[in-house]
Amino acid sequence: MKMKFKSLGFRLFITSTLIALIVLPLAAWQLISQYRNSIETNFDERLKANLSLLIESSFSENFDTPQKPTQFGGFAFTLQNSGWYWQIKPENNKGLSGFTSESLGDEKLNLTSRQGVKKEPDGTTKFYITYGSDRRLRVIERKITLGTAQNPQSYIYTVTGDSSEIEDDVIDFASMLSFTFLILGSGLILATLLQVKIGLKPLQAIEHGLTAIRAGKTDKLEGNFPAEIEPLQIEINNLIRSNMNVIERARTHVGNLAHALKTPLSVVKNEVGSQKGNLANKIGEQVDIMQNQISHHLDRARMAAHVGIVGSLTEIAPILKALERVLQRIHQDKALKFTLNCPETASFAGEKQDFEEIIGNLLDNAFKWAKSAVSCTVICKEGKAGTAAKAKIKSTAKEAPVKDMIVITVDDDGPGLSEKERQQVLKRGKRLDETVPGSGLGLSIVTDLVDLYGGVVALETSPLGGVRVKIQLPAGS
Questions:
Q1: What CATH number should be reported for the domain holding residue 378?
Q2: Do 156 and 57 lie in a common domain?
Q3: Backbone conformation region of residue 116, classed left if phi is above 0, alpha if psi is from -120 to 50, else beta
């Protein structure tokens, strides 16, 4: 199923993709934050253990002043510029001596960034400092008071560690998590795409089913649909059956009305035909008018009923070939040359009897007026809705709709018609030559039928010298 910009599938896919693109990064950020806190907590526990060991190893026997630890920590506290340092510093009395780790050398730690840092419940303070030009250290310190009650002395015990360990662990975890979430996000997007395609496939089946109904290949929507769509299938089939029943009832009523009106009028006409005088002639004229009007409106009612049928499809070539044989036999005395150009696949989206009436009237007129040649050409055109280009047929009345269509052209080499005569000949009952048999209703019926199907009728001058009638009708799919 192709996803167009305004399609339901496109909306579902884009919505799910946007949610995944928003939720997954937020989840990754939250996990990285929690991991960083966990790594930082573990690092602080290491520093706290070293701080406790530093305090314990610095106590003297009388607990009045600290002494320099002889053995403390590991190799990192002896390596210059390692980032792992310790320091014991008097808080206020500058006359007291302090001690530093070998890794610090002659340097001192600047701990001014502790200002405003809240103490932990165990009395320690944790914060970061920048040592040197760009090294960032994690610091943990604690104040210890020694000496006597009369002469207390406070010392700040500090242990630091290189925070690059924390950053490296977090970067490694973030890289692994990003790669994992990238795979997960791609999988979710692919799963969403498959879900949309599979989930909306029944709608595509409904589209194909309705197309088959309109093409006349079936008269109901068939297939096994999911439980959520099955009620729609049932209602569509019920609607089609109801439509057919209404049309059938309309046909029946039209037939009954025709029988109910035409029979009494025929009786009246026969009665007045046997009478003489102005009154009988007047009544006879009015009966003829009434019969023509009844025929006209009943024909239109029947046409409209046919057009309303769902799924009507008529193949064109067999009908044209059959009409050719009949008309050649009827007009065999004229020895007319008939040329037919029609694709075998051409079809009309409508009732067979309506198409027979349309093309039958056109070919009958052409054979009546032709001197030696008649031709019929059928062209199938594919409309492109939404483009600036529009398919047109020359007509003073209409512009052809942009859709799939068939254009049928009938030419003869008869006497032809002037522009004024072309307008008159389309009127119901209008005959330009009373010597030629006919009722004058042919082209008018053609116009009515074509109009009901949304088509166009145009009269032009034929290259053969006579009349060219060009009609456009909806093509079957």
A1: 3.30.565.10
A2: yes
A3: left
> Mean pLDDT in each 10-residue stretch from start to end of the chain (477 residues)?
69 86 92 94 92 85 74 80 88 74 84 82 89 87 81 87 91 94 90 83 83 76 83 86 76 70 76 78 80 67 56 84 90 90 89 86 91 93 48 40 79 88 65 41 75 86 91 85
Contact 316, 348 (CB under 8 A): yes
In a domain, 216, yes or no: no
Q: Are residues 431 and 292 in the same domain?
A: no
Task: Note whether residue 212 is domain-resident.
Answer: no
- The answer to whether position 204 is within a domain reads no
Helix (H) or strand (E) holding 152: strand 152-162
**What is the token pair recorded at 181?**
């979430």
270 plus 333 within the same structural domain: no
Final residue in a domain of this structure, among 269, 284, 306: 306
Q: Is the dihedral of CA 427, 358, 368, 286 positive or negative?
A: negative
- Structural domain count of the chain: 3
Based on the fold, state whether residues 272 and 392 are members of the same structural domain. Answer: no
Structural domain including 458 reads 312-474
Backbone angles phi, psi at 467, to 5 degrees: -105, 140
Residue-wise pLDDT tens digits, 62-116: 667 788 887 676 788 888 888 899 988 888 766 667 888 888 888 888 887 777 7
155-188 confidence digits (pLDDT tens): 889 999 999 989 999 999 999 999 999 999 899 8
pLDDT for 407 equals 94
- Flag whether 179 is in a domain: no
Same domain (yes/no): 273, 329: no
Evaluate whether 131 touches 113 at the Cβ level (below 8 Å).
no
The whole-chain average pLDDT of the chain stands at 80
- In the numeric block, the tokens 């009269």 are attached to 459
Residues 296 and 321 in one domain: no
What are the tokens at 109?
A: 């730690």
What are the φ/ψ torsions at residue 460 (nearest 5 degrees)? -135, 180
Regarding whether 159 and 19 lie in a shared domain, the answer is yes
**Gap between the Cα atoms of 443 and 426, Å rounded:** 6
Residue 302 shares a structural domain with residue 316: no
User: Tokens for 107?
Assistant: 């340097």
Whether 375 contacts 410, CB under 8 Å = yes
| DSSP state at residue 279 | H
Q: Which amino acid is at 252?
A: T
Instruction: Say what the pTM is.
Output: 0.50
From residue 383, give the alpha-carbon distance in Å to each of 65, 212, 225, 444. 101, 19, 32, 27
